[in-house]
Specification:
GIY-YIG endonuclease; Nucleotidyltransferase, domain 5; five-stranded mixed β-sheet; eight-stranded mixed β-sheet; 19 strands; single chain; alpha+beta
Length: about 600
């Protein structure tokens, strides 16, 4: 990518693969271009991929770019609407000039008796309900056509006041006779029934289109049952379009007017605050602010500082502020609230999404500039999440398993600085435990591992992870107590089902955020120890390295050995079993070989004694 500065190159490289709006700034800090993108990274990158743009203005634009800012949105349509808002607000030099507000169509439900439903580009504050805006005129036409087919609303502009209808001022028109209207003008269509239909339409236009889709499905099935396949296909196409449509966007919403939206995210000593300004029902401004703690300020205190600074900086006079937490702030005549549902909640979520991606972008930038940055940040986060006194730079994870109930083995994975250290992985053949016993096996492995590290004076890990619940954790703890290591290392257990983190002295498990990096590292440790243990099993089977006293009996192969030990659990129990019982496992011929072996072994022992 050929760009004029490493700074711009880094910005472009860290853009997300998401829909949104980007802004190009000049060296003087002016917005010179606003653009929309289905994929921010691909679209912005395209400006810098060509050596020479054919268009002279494009070459001039690229040459003047000194900074890039972006805002992530939920869909391509939202990006289109936000781009439209920002162009009108800032009039960037290299954008097409938009002179009026009649760019996108809306669907209006007029505030009147027997309301009309129609398309408009003009918003009138007369109490009517507006839905949209829609990026596609075709979508508006399809919706209105479907609504008319299903609900048979009037499309005339007559004044259907109660007095006019009672006096019989109007007559039924052609629309009634061809079945497009139910005649509210002459009192045939009851006002209550009409209003119920309007409420259904509002639900559909709010995005709750499932009712309409269900009705269309009934229509399609009815046409199909009558062998009217062309009509059925036509209805099916309408269903498909309706299922894809999003009825409205918070990017432009006439119901939300003159509102400031703030969201905050904390990381270490830094707070990141996103600010969205909504004027006349449209988002016209977005800004990100970083604050460094000086003392031990809370998130509420930092949010208070940010709100005061940003409102003053952008000369905001909004009478409503939306926040994720209530700041320690009271401004006369201004409402500060935490939205719980609806479009205001969606606005707050949009702001929070932009904070998240801003932080990701910063981390990527810092990590490329300094590879140690990611390690330090991750270690700090893990120390905090796992309530440790030190950073878990060195972690060992243990798991034990067995093959068909026999031959118990264990494995250990190792992570250093948040990454696998495969040269330090180990596997263990259980020596002192007969049969499958997870608790006893874990106790043996932990004892052997750390006894050896003590004897060889090797470094001990800061964290031990036991794959299992309280039982396995307690067994591991017994071995650490025997070795005098209790309290010298942190130890936790992780249960598979609910990803619960268990601590030795705490009966209540810890639940980490499913998306947290700490949980991902622990899960990766567990996956690695599983993989390493399974590989060890396979290698032993393929190489025939499962050795027991039975392996020396001529005519008894590895499969027979596994069957016998799976059934009898140990060689000792097998030697004490009856011939008939052995024959039921491996057959009469092999049982004879086994008994001959044990007789000879007994004679040899007597001879030596």
């Amino acid at each position: 990518m050929k760009v004029k500065s490493a700074y711009i190159s880094e910005l472009v490289r860290n853009l997300p693969d998401l829909p949104g709006v980007y802004q190009f700034f000049s060296a003087e800090g002016q917005i010179i271009y606003v653009g929309k993108a289905k994929n921010l990274k691909k679209r912005v990158s395209s400006y810098f991929l060509k050596d020479k743009h054919e268009n002279g203005k494009t070459r001039m634009l690229v040459a003047r770019i000194a900074d890039i800012k972006y805002m992530v949105v939920d869909s391509e349509m939202d990006a289109l609407l936000l781009e439209n808002n920002l162009i009108k607000k800032y009039l960037p030099r290299y954008n097409v000039l938009l002179k009026d507000d009649k760019t996108f169509p809306w669907i209006c439900i007029k505030k009147e008796r027997f309301p009309r439903v129609f398309s408009t580009r003009l918003l009138v504050k007369d109490g009517s309900s507006y839905f949209g805006p829609y990026a596609s005129v075709k979508m508006v036409s399809i919706l209105l056509e479907l609504i008319q087919q299903l609900f048979k609303l009037r499309n005339c502009s007559l004044n259907l006041g109660e007095e006019n209808i009672r006096k019989g001022k109007y007559k039924l028109c052609l629309e009634y006779h061809i079945g497009n209207c139910k005649g509210p003008c002459v009192g045939i269509y009851a006002e209550k029934e009409y209003e119920e239909q309007i409420q259904e339409i509002k639900e559909i236009l709010k995005g709750n289109a499932h009712t309409l889709i269900a009705k269309l499905k009934e229509m399609m099935e009815l046409h199909a049952s009558r062998y009217e396949y062309e009509e059925a296909q036509h209805v099916k196409e309408k269903m498909f379009i309706l299922e894809r449509f999003r009825s409205k966007s918070v990017i432009v919403n006439p119901l939300i007017n003159n509102v400031d939206v703030f969201s905050i995210a904390m990381e270490g000593d830094t707070a990141y605050v996103n600010f969205l300004k909504v004027m006349n029902g449209a988002i016209i401004q977005a800004h990100m602010l970083e604050l460094k703690k000086k003392l031990d300020e809370t998130a509420e205190e930092l949010l208070t500082i940010a709100i005061t600074d940003l409102r003053n900086r952008f000369s905001s006079h909004s009478t409503e502020i939306l926040v994720p937490i209530l700041p320690d702030l009271s401004i006369p005549g201004i409402s500060i609230s935490i939205p719980k549902i609806g479009d205001k909640k969606r606005l707050l979520e949009l702001s929070e999404k932009n904070v998240t991606y801003y932080m990701k972008e910063l981390h990527l930038r810092y990590e490329k500039a300094d590879p140690i940055y990611r390690v330090n940040r991750l270690m700090d986060q893990m120390q905090k999440d796992l309530r440790m006194q030190v950073q878990p730079r060195y972690i060992e994870c243990f798991d034990n398993s067995n093959i068909q109930g026999a031959f118990p083995v264990a494995a250990m994975s190792v992570f250093k600085d948040g990454k696998p250290s495969k040269k330090d992985y180990r596997h263990f053949n259980i020596k002192t435990v007969e049969g499958p016993n997870d608790f006893a096996s874990m106790e043996e492995v932990i004892y052997r591992r750390y006894k050896r590290l003590i004897e060889e004076k090797q470094e001990l890990p800061q964290l031990i992870v036991i794959d299992g619940g309280k039982g396995q954790l307690s067994s591991a703890l017994k071995s650490l107590e025997k070795l005098g290591l209790q309290g010298k290392m942190n130890i936790i257990g992780i249960a598979k089902k609910l990803e619960e983190i268990f601590y030795p002295s705490d009966p209540i498990p810890l639940y980490l955020d499913k998306k947290s990096e700490t949980l991902k590292i622990i899960q990766q440790l567990r996956d690695e120890v599983h993989r390493f243990g399974i590989t060890h099993h396979r290698n032993r089977r393929s190489k025939g390295t499962i050795k027991t006293a039975l392996s020396d009996i001529r005519g008894i192969g590895p499969e027979s050995v596994q069957l016998l030990l799976s059934h009898f659990k140990s060689v000792k129990r097998l030697s004490e079993a009856g011939k008939d019982e052995v024959a039921t496992v491996v057959g009469k011929a092999k049982s004879e070989l086994i008994f001959a072996y044990f007789r000879q072994k007994l004679l040899n022992e007597k001879g030596t004694s």
